[in-house]
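Hey all, sorry for the wall of text incoming. These are the two entities for the joint prediction.
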Amino acid sequence: MKGRADIHAFVQGLLDASGDDAPLVDSDSLLFSGRLQSIDAVEIVVFLEENFGIDFAQVGFDKERIDSVDAICALIESVAKSS
Amino acid sequence: MEPLTYNLGDTGPNKETQQANRRAAVEDALRSHPGVREAAVALDGDHLVAFVVADSEFVDNVLGRAAAGSTIVSKWRKIFDLSQLSKQAATASVGFNTMGWDSSYTRSAIPDDEMHEWVENTVGDILRLKPVSLCEIGCGTGMLVMRIAPHCERYVAVDQSSAVLKRLKEQLGTAPDVAGRVEIVESQAAQLDRFGENTFDTLVLSSVVQFFPNVGYLSKVLENAIKMVRPGGHIYVGDVRSLPLLPAFATSVELFQAAEELSASELRDRIHRRIEREPELALSPAYFLALPRGIPKVSRVDIRPLRGRADNEMTRFRYEAILHIGHDNAPVFDGEFVDWIERKWTVEDLRSLLRQKSKQAFGIRGILNARLEKDLAAMAILDGADAGLTAGTIRQKLEHDVYRGVHPQALFDLENENLGYRVFLSWTACRNDGSYDAFFLPKESLQGMALPAIHWPEPDSSAFLHHANAPGQGRICKELTDQLMAHCTQNLPPEFVPREIMLVDSLENAS
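and here's what came out:
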């Protein structure tokens, strides 16, 4: 099972690819801050679907829920608890 | 591959001949590369600069643009699917589901009143085309469907997102009188081949082409769309992101978002990065203006700035292109155009002028656009910025500037003042400062025509060099120019190798 470190590394990879070399703190806003673009949200969604089995059609989707590493971890935890 | 051999030209009769030989040699070398469809070389001082139109098949299949484009299409579909899974989408009012319409400035939803104005103006512009049988590609959850279908006999609504179409079906369920006229089709824009030639009188692509992966994809969609529309009909391409205005847009957004203390040089870097990373397709009006030359079924093209009082990214940086399909026998209005810069007329001046004109048609060229004046001033400040300037001081300077531009909506409003004139605005000239041309036509000379043919000022030839940006294709473009530079180095004497190779969309008018 992947964990916080893997999520952090994945997000760091997206930031690297977009030329953002500022340090990544887990509470940093990713989408609302503009560090990542809307189209990058798809990468996060697919990562969560494939690695954590999250079905967004079931749990709903709001950008806030994937806007930081912390938010993503909270989402995974809430889905795990409810299943 | 054997290195090509060239006459170096230094034994030629004169310098001009030598230079012509040099250019011809480089053009030949470039054309021998499979990634090149056309090439032209110019002299910049003592250096050569090459302009290259890439070979689409090579870029698609060898460099992987087709696969990258397909990924981009899938990503956008997923985004639109996701946008309908939010709580707000489920509770949106019928015909006004604005999920995904986020401001680039605030990254929050564009205010409802601005969206209402945008949608009503878009509907008005499409209804002026008098649609009876209409196909909308990229219909979304039906903001246009719910408003336009009641005026049509047949409305075919096409979208690639199943979640979006599910929402549209729910909305149509609440409006059975509209639903009876609407057919829903789930399809990608480029795969819509189920309709025969001349099926519709109107085809709409509103706020959708920016999500196409590249200009080649758009051309494929339009080629099919043009076949589907019968002579006398129209294709409305709306909410098109303007390529000439992309730098002004990037400046505007980055300055808005910048912290007070951000330095001018960092701000310039951010603007540059935003343009480089732009994920959406931006198009020059020149792309549409060139269509009649390649596709005779397109008789003429109108390029218009949007109506609207609200100054937002749609009204300021986007335009609509209307393609007239089939033979066009409308008379061409060919009045005199006066340069605005020589008179600097205000709206009040123009109102007086219209009262005095005694029903003559006339035009004004290059009207300074009040919607963009501040952004242009910001660009000018940044161009010459010294090290001490920050985003905060630039914003202060802009507050103290005096602005003289004319708001496009203020000119449209003159139509409602019993002055006897209709007002037409155009961005046909493709200027990168957003200035526009206006044509004032006495109402009685129109004889009921909604879209008269007007002989607008032409764009400069340079407008035709670049039709579009290449969202997400920076790597592919760089790979091609690297390959071409290596090819030149391998096959040409060192003094013939161009200093720069620029990828362009067309060499037509580029000389």
